[in-house]
């Protein structure tokens, strides 16, 4: 297969390198990734500034294209301008840190996969559940196995406008307990900012929020990771939720007010 691989940690990130190295063993790989880290940019795209692209060499050979834009930009410009043929699958990652719960909305890693879905391509986002001392080799191997297992679906059975969000426990392969098809948890950051003063006496703030540890619903992505399971969630760009019948009176009342 022809794979377009991107991320949000930047084109020189070790998680991307591990994924590329593993996928190159059996697939054709094209790398189009942000020049610099784009963590938590969500599904932003660049409109008011030019997007610049340059070729990156690693170990004496062409590695991929570095893009001065977001992960969603990388998928767009890769598909429309840089690749000589459309990819069969878009992969994003392997991200340093999990993308579960409400973080899915903030994640540049996941947004690259949802951008693929918007453009009519299958997409998979990969993230590792740690921020320190990451070993990207086990998740890269698991990612390759998952891609191979899903190959039949790529022949036309992949659900339209759908991508996968995959999160790996930070454990050796022998300690992975299995794989779970999950739903997105509704947990969000316990918000906190640390106020500091710069040398000129001006205040600035660091985001110090953290994931809550005591609200884990069974069957969710957070629940799966806590049990040593690989979490696989199906996502769609369509975020709308159908209103229940109890909304009808409120909407009818609103219509009378505005008309």
Compile the SSE list and pairings.
Blueprint: E1 2-6, H1 14-23, E2 28-34, E3 53-58, E4 61-67, H2 71-82, E5 89-96, H3 103-106, H4 108-118, E6 123-128, H5 137-150, E7 163-168, E8 178-182, E9 193-197, E10 203-207, H6 221-226, E11 229-235, H7 248-258
Parallel strand pairs: 1-2, 1-5, 2-4, 5-6, 6-7, 8-11
Antiparallel strand pairs: 3-4, 7-11, 9-10
Helix pairs in contact: 1-5, 2-4
Describe the structure.
It is a single chain. With 259 residues, the protein is of the alpha/beta class. Helices cover 26% and strands 26% of the residues. The protein contains 7 helices and 11 strands. It has helices at residues 14-23, 71-82, 103-106, 108-118, 137-150, 221-226, 248-258, and strands at residues 2-6, 28-34, 53-58, 61-67, 89-96, 123-128, 163-168, 178-182, 193-197, 203-207, 229-235. The protein has a 9-stranded mixed sheet with strand order 3-4-2-1-5-6-7-11-8, sandwiched between helices. Strands 9-10 form a two-stranded antiparallel sheet. A hairpin with a 2-residue loop joins strand 3 and strand 4 (61-67). Helix 1 (14-23) packs across helix 5 and helix 2 (71-82) packs across helix 4 (108-118). The radius of gyration is 20 Å and the shape is globular. The termini are far apart.
